[in-house]
TrEMBL record:
Domain Neurotransmitter-gated ion-channel ligand-binding: 1-83
Organism encoding this protein: Nothobranchius furzeri
Keyword Ion transport carried by entry: yes
Keyword entries, A-Z: Chloride, Chloride channel, Disulfide bond, Ion channel, Ion transport, Receptor, Transport
Gene Ontology MF term list: chloride channel activity; extracellular ligand-gated monoatomic ion channel activity; GABA-A receptor activity
Compartment(s) where it occurs, according to its Swiss-Prot or TrEMBL record: Cell membrane
Membrane topology category: Multi-pass membrane protein
Gene3D superfamilies according to UniProt: Neurotransmitter-gated ion-channel ligand-binding domain
Transmembrane segments: none
Protein name: Gamma-aminobutyric acid (GABA) A receptor, alpha 2
An example Gene Ontology CC term for this record: chloride channel complex
UniProt cross-references to Pfam families, sorted A to Z: Neur_chan_LBD (PF02931)
Gene label: GABRA2
Length: 92
């Protein structure tokens, strides 16, 4: 986490799905409905006190290690800190 722009910063939080038990040749993870429709965030279910959820992105990546190559599905959630929450909690 980089705090140079605190309290007006933004972050990208990754959520990764994969297996280190099976290599890329044994199992391959893909987004079922494609990258644009695979992650659905409910508008009323995504309330955070300190952050606004400004977007998300998904993708696949291959991780290489000494035991082989592994497929990983990744969803990134893009968050922006609410300055009003920080000001109220710190100064009031």
């Amino acid at each position: 986490m980089h705090l140079e722009d605190f309290p007006m910063d933004s972050h990208s939080c990754p959520l990764k799905f994969g297996s280190y038990a099976y290599t890329k040749t044994e199992v391959s993870y893909i987004w079922l409905r494609g990258a644009s429709q695979s992650v659905v965030v409910a508008a009323d279910g995504s309330r955070l006190n300190q952050y606004d959820l400004v977007g998300h992105s998904v993708g696949n990546e291959t991780i290489k290690s000494s035991t082989g190559e592994y497929t990983v599905m990744t969803a990134h959630f893009h968050l922006k800190r609410k300055i009003g929450y920080f000001v109220i909690q710190t100064y009031l």
